[in-house]
Structure formats: structure tokens, C-alpha cells
Amino acid sequence: DLRRAEPGQYVGQRLRFRVTQISAGGRNVVVSRRHILAEEAAAQAATVWERLAVGAVVRGTVTSLRDFGAFVDLGGVEGLIHVTELGYGRPRHPSEVVQVGQEVEAQVVKLERAAEGGRDRISLSLRALAADPWLSAAERFPVGTSVRGTVRRLEPFGAFVELAPGLDGLVHVSRMSLQGRVAHPKNVVKIGDEVEVTVITLEPEKRRISLSMVEGARRARDDAEAAARREDRAAITEKTSEGKSLGTLADLLATSAKKRR
Asked: Which of 60, 147, 168, 251 could cross-link to 72 by cystine, CB 3.0-4.6 Å?
């Protein structure tokens, strides 16, 4: 193995070695297996490169994870799945999507052969093989639908809200508050907030969704006002009932007094 390993695991095995040094009249012989393994790995890598092409779908095993992506062994060569190519979502770390030792299927999106002494680069993507969420956006979020989403980005003109992995809509500043246009979205929401929005327009071909927070706020206000009116009517009814009861008791007392006379 080209990586360091415990020597004890090779006891009893028959392996091929290359003699690298002979001294003391042949009494001291130094052998190496690393040279043979390196040559075998180079030959295997060359074979893999011959069948690689942009657009090809390959299978490999995740060997390590970094903040910027996951490295995948394709059988003698390693490719990188950048964190943005792990899917349509926004994972904070590759470990949210894949694990070391996991076998994955990915598409080759870029190949870079380096000059002699450099390092070849293979860029892979899981996202390229996943279903495009925009293709079903109209069915999942038709105009008029109210849904809860997560604020992902703030701009002076509005807030971008994620409805589903890969589907972000824009809440314009003019549709963020019942009080009218706000100076900046940060005055109403912050990144990570979960908000209720209503789909105003949907243009899958342009990958655009216009959202509004006003409708939800208006419904909440109307519901609160309706609840307050119900409480007021209930209170009035209760007071009226109490008044009628007292009047009836007074009448009974008056009638009883007349009878005693």
C-alpha cells in the first residue's frame, strides 16, 4: 500500500518487491514494494483517464471530506465534488450529504490535465444527475399558494427565501410589511428566519418566483381582529344574560311581596 500501514498485517503474505540496494558482498539486500505499487497505480490511473470524458457518469468511493467538497476515488485517480455540486440544496459541510466510504455515482463536469510534475484535476457533480426542482415548481407551488420558507439572502431590494432545495423566490421590499415599503429587508427579517410567504408569480423558464409576506400578515391581522370581535360579542352576550337573570329575580320578589299583602 502506498499509504503507511502496520507491517504486521503483511506477515505470511507473498508479495512482489524490487531490489534497490545490495551491499556487503550480497549479505545486505534492500528491497522496496513502493516502487512497484507506484508503477501499478500510474498504469491504473492512465487506464481510468482513457475512459474519462466530460459528461461521463462514473462510480467511486468517497475517500475524504473537506469544507470545500468531497474527494472520490475513481479507481486509481481522485476526483473532487465541490460543495456546490453536492446537490441543489445548500449544505454547510459535505458531511451533510455524503460520508467517507460511501459509494457514489457522479458526472464528470471538468477535466484538467496538468503539465509534467503538476496535478491532474477531475471535477465531479452529484447535482448534475439530480432532478431539476424547477421542472416541478409549477405543480408544487402554484400561484396563490402559501408556504413556509427560510430566508437565505438579503439584498437592498428584497429577501430571497428558499421554498425547497434549489428553489428560491424573491420577496420584494414592497411586499414585506403591511406598513408599506421598508428601507431595507434587514429591518424585517434576518438570514435563517422561517417566514410564511405567498406565491405571487411563477416563471419556471426564467427560474423566477415572486413572493409576498403581506398576504400572510394580512390574514394573521384579520384572524386576530375576527377573534377579538368574537370575544367582544361573547362578553356582551354574557352581560346581557346576567342582566335578564337579575330582572327575572326582581320580578319574582315583587310578585311574592304582592301575594303576602
From this structure: 60
Q: How many Å apart are CA 119 and CA 113, to the nearest integer?
A: 7
Q: What is the pLDDT of residue 255?
A: 61
Would you list the domain boundaries of the chain? 7-129, 133-216
Q: What is the mean pLDDT of the chain?
A: 84
d(CA 33, CA 27): 20
Residues 6 or more apart whose Cβ sits within 8 Å of residue 101: 61, 62
Rounded to a whole number of angstroms, the CA Rg of the chain reads: 36
- pLDDT band for position 127 (cuts 50, 70, 90): very high
Task: Reduce the DSSP state of residue 202 to 3 states and report it.
Answer: strand
* Fold of the domain spanning 133-216: OB fold (Dihydrolipoamide Acetyltransferase, E2P) (2.40.50)
The CATH superfamily assigned to 7-129 is Nucleic acid-binding proteins (2.40.50.140)
pTM, entire model: 0.64
Kindly state the average pLDDT of the residues 58-79: 93
Reported for 108-114, long-range contacts at CB under 8 A and 24+ positions apart, including other chains, are 108/52, 108/53, 108/54, 108/55, 108/56, 108/57, 108/58, 108/79, 109/54, 109/85, 110/54, 111/52, 111/53, 111/54, 113/49
**Judging by DSSP bridges, how do beta strands 167-172 and 208-212 pair with one another?**
parallel
Distances (CA, A) of 235 to 121, 230, 248: 75, 9, 20
Q: Residue 10 in contact with residue 25, Cβ under 8 Å?
A: no
The span from the CA of 161 to the CA of 167, in Å, is 8
The mean pLDDT value for 183-207 works out to 94
Cα–Cα distance measured from residue 127 to residue 134, given in angstroms and rounded to the nearest whole number:
13
Where residue 144 falls among pLDDT bands split at 50, 70, 90?
A: very high
